[in-house]
UniProtKB/TrEMBL annotation:
Organismal lineage: Bacteria, Bacillati, Actinomycetota, Actinomycetes, Streptosporangiales
UniProt key word tRNA-binding: yes
UniProt-recorded name of the protein: Peptidyl-tRNA hydrolase
GO BP terms: protein quality control for misfolded or incompletely synthesized proteins; rescue of stalled ribosome
HAMAP family per record: Pept_tRNA_hydro_bact
E.C. numbers: 3.1.1.29
Enzyme class: hydrolase
Gene designation per UniProt: pth
Catalytic activity: an N-acyl-L-alpha-aminoacyl-tRNA + H2O = an N-acyl-L-amino acid + a tRNA + H(+)
Organism: Thermomonospora umbrina
Entry keyword Phosphoprotein: no
Record-marked site positions (Discriminates between blocked and unblocked aminoacyl-tRNA): 13
Homology family: Belongs to the PTH family.
CDD domains reported in the protein's UniProt record: PTH
Principal location listed in the UniProt entry: cytoplasm
């Protein structure tokens, strides 16, 4: 049995006004993972809602920062320090404009690509080498500002497949923890 602890962070914005936004894809995935772990989120002093449990036989802390997206780094660094999790076992689940809607991609490290939540996390951790599970939301139509696009709710057409796509992203997180990055990429990038 694996005793190493993982930190899985879903990105989003707090409060009901943002609940259905594309930018809250990370929160949606973490809610599914919480159900699979059989627990409920509790308030943690790191400014995050936290659930300690098991995913696919792996010990994991699931976390949803209570800060706004652009300030996610403080809570993530606080969780890293509190639970003593090395950066190579931190997984961040987030929305991704540069991936078609519903596609899931996994990677380690890289830049923020204009994602302010990732920028904040990389700055606060002093490291970009954490794992990412990227939930595709696609590019905005026409000349819509990407910042406005991610703060809009998923469209009615997108909502038809949203639950399934969120489940697939949750599957990808579990595969990443159980099988490693390369195996999870091989399984989910082919979809």
């Amino acid at each position: 049995m694996d005793t190493e602890l993982w930190l899985v962070v879903g990105l989003g914005n707090p409060g009901p006004a943002y609940a259905g936004n594309r930018h809250n894809a990370g929160f949606l995935v973490l809610d599914v993972l919480a159900g699979r772990a059989g627990g409920r989120f509790k308030t943690h002093r790191s400014r995050a809602d936290v659930l300690e449990g098991r995913l696919n036989g792996r010990r994991a802390v699931l976390a949803k920062p209570r800060s706004f997206m652009n300030d996610s780094g403080g809570p993530v660094a606080g969780l890293r320090d509190f639970f003593k999790v090395p950066v190579e076992r931190i997984v961040v689940v987030h929305d991704e404009l540069d991936i078609p809607y519903g596609a899931v991609r996994l990677k380690r490290g890289g830049g923020a690509g204009g994602h302010n939540g990732l920028r904040s996390i990389s700055r606060s951790l002093g490291d970009q080498d954490y794992l990412r599970v990227r939930f595709g939301v696609g590019r905005p139509p026409g000349r819509m500002d990407p910042a406005a696009y991610v703060l809009k709710d998923f469209s009615s057409a997108e909502r038809k497949d949203l639950d399934l796509n969120v489940e697939v992203a949750a599957d990808a997180v579990e595969a990443l923890l159980a099988d490693g990055l390369e195996a999870a990429q091989n399984a989910f990038h082919a979809r």
